[in-house]
Design brief:
Blueprint (H helix, E strand, L loop, with lengths): L1 E4 L9 H16 L3 E4 L11 H14 L22 H13 L3 E4 L3 H13 L8 H5 L4 H10 L4 E4 L6 E5 L3 E5 L7 E4 L7 H11 L4 E5 L3 H14 L5 E5 L2 E2 L15 H6 L4 H9 L14 H7 L10 E2 L2 H14 L2 H12 L11 H8 L9 H5 L14 H16 L5 H15 L3 H13 L7 H8 L1 H13 L6
Parallel strand pairs: 1-2, 8-9, 10-11
Antiparallel strand pairs: 3-4, 4-7, 5-6
């Protein structure tokens, strides 16, 4: 088994593309196949080397490491289409010699005028050899030669039905005349997607292709080219479209659509991969939280859904928070480091892992850390408004905490209970006011954990500030 992921380096990796990459990866790993990365960079105007590098980095971040590709090489390279132009020209020439393709000496504006005429006449804009070769007069051929221009190469589409046994959608019939003749090589010498894709998949011996069903309309053209080349097509599986929560095709109006955006917002790669796997595929045991190794062991083509997949950002965030909660503080600290640097306060603490453990329940994405942990690094901006009687209670509490020999959670709780018993103050009033006094917030992690992690000196200083009536500085 040989599968491939073939992105175009014209932008950041879309979640739909990432899902395609993941499904092909899972298929290859499940059946001990080869996973190929091919860069389809024939869109000269939009392709960018920076995007190519970003695509590769994002795939690595997701854990989707390839066996053959531009950076690794392999027996079927080169793996960039821009480096394979000679190959496409040779195949086009072969098809021309066999009468299966032909040169067209028409200017783009003439083809567009022909298209508009057919549409205006209520005819499907399907070209045929007779109407296109009408442009190829001796005069036009001489004109092209004089100007140093190259003709486009069109494929002569057979007038017949084509059949596809799709791994996901089942039997599909493409009716006769559903597609007219189409371009293989542009006058610039650059191949079209369908032609380059077929030539590459043939030469790279690709056996299985999983891709989005938006490519289904391309398949009939590709099947025809495979037949013309005398090559066996790979097995195709067209997975369902990804829709937004409103049932419309996922786009920028739904929020972030690139994997890079989710990464920068603090999503974990494990969570993104896990969530993408469930967009159109399901585990046989209906399990939702899975490692990539679990997905590989359970992956099968009969678990794909034919219905569109709904991308739910809320569920992705929930899944991300699950992975964060399950992560050990030390590992989570490593993931948090780039985001800690973005905090508007200095993070210095000998027990940073302890703080992470306490606040991680409140971290849904890594960028939440700064807000969740600021109570440990920033004093409250102002003191709560409390009466003199309660002030004396807290000052007594500060004195007792100051004298506490072993600064441990259970001993701190014991001091709180002693203060409550001695002053006969209401428990809820004591704890809620103390929380605001120490953190400036009405809610947060367990108060005893907060006190323990703040440390003796900081806690006593913050509490005694109420007795001095001072405004705490940030």
């Amino acid at each position: 088994m040989r599968v491939r992921f073939a992105p175009s380096p014209t932008g950041y990796l879309h979640v739909g593309g990432a899902r395609t990459a993941l499904f092909n990866y899972l298929l290859a790993r499940r059946f001990n196949g080869v996973y190929v990365l091919r860069i389809e960079d024939t869109d000269v105007a939009r392709s960018d080397k920076t995007f190519e590098m970003n695509l590769m980095e994002t795939l690595k971040w997701l854990g989707l490491h390839w066996d053959e590709g531009p950076d690794k090489g392999g027996s079927y390279g080169p793996y960039r289409q821009s480096e394979r132009l000679r190959i496409y020209r040779e195949y086009a020439e072969t098809l021309i010699k066999e009468g299966k393709a032909y040169r067209v000496y028409a200017y783009p504006k003439e083809i567009e005028a022909l298209r508009e005429k057919m549409i205006n006449n209520g005819v499907a804009p399907h070209y045929n050899r007779e109407m296109l070769e009408a442009f190829s007069t001796e005069k036009r051929r001489a004109e092209y030669k004089e100007k140093g221009l190259q003709p486009a190469v069109y494929f002569s589409m057979p007038r017949k039905q084509f059949f596809l046994k799709d791994m996901v959608k089942g039997e599909i019939v493409f009716s006769e005349g559903s597609v007219g003749d189409f371009v293989l090589l542009r006058s610039s010498g650059i191949p079209t997607y369908n032609f380059a894709c077929v030539v590459d998949d043939t030469l790279m011996k690709i056996t299985h292709v999983i891709r989005g069903d938006d490519h289904l309309s391309n398949t009939v053209k590709q099947l025809a080219i495979y037949e013309a080349l005398g090559a066996n097509p790979p097995q195709f599986g067209h997975v369902s479209t990804i829709l937004g929560p409103d049932g419309k095709k996922l786009s920028k109006r739904h929020g972030s659509t690139s994997v890079e955006e989710y990464r920068s917002r603090g999503y974990l790669s494990e969570a993104v991969v896990n969530y993408l796997a469930l967009l159109g595929w399901s585990s046989p045991d209906a399990k939702e939280i899975m490692s990539i190794d679990e997905m590989i062991s359970k992956f099968s083509l009969d678990r794909f859904s034919k219905n569109p997949a709904i991308f739910d950002p809320k569920k992705l965030k929930w899944m991300n928070s699950h992975y964060i909660r399950a992560m050990k503080p030390g590992e989570l600290l490593l993931r948090l480091k780039p985001y800690i640097e973005q905090c508007d306060y200095e993070v210095k603490h000998e027990n940073l892992e302890g703080i992470i453990e306490v606040v991680k329940e409140r971290i849904h994405v890594l960028t939440d850390f700064c807000e969740a942990a600021e109570i440990f690094f920033k004093k409250p901006s102002q003191l709560p408004d409390i009466n003199s009687e309660l002030i004396s209670v807290f000052l007594n509490c500060a004195d007792r905490l100051q004298k506490l020999q072993n600064w441990e959670k259970m001993n701190i709780i014991k001091v709180f209970k002693e203060v409550l018993k001695h002053h006969k103050v209401k428990r809820k009033e004591f704890y809620s006011t103390l929380r605001v006094l120490l953190t400036g917030k009405n809610e947060g992690p367990e108060l005893a954990d907060v006190v323990c992690l703040l440390g003796r000196d900081e806690v006593v200083s913050r509490v005694r500030a109420i007795g001095r009536g001072e405004q705490c500085s940030e």
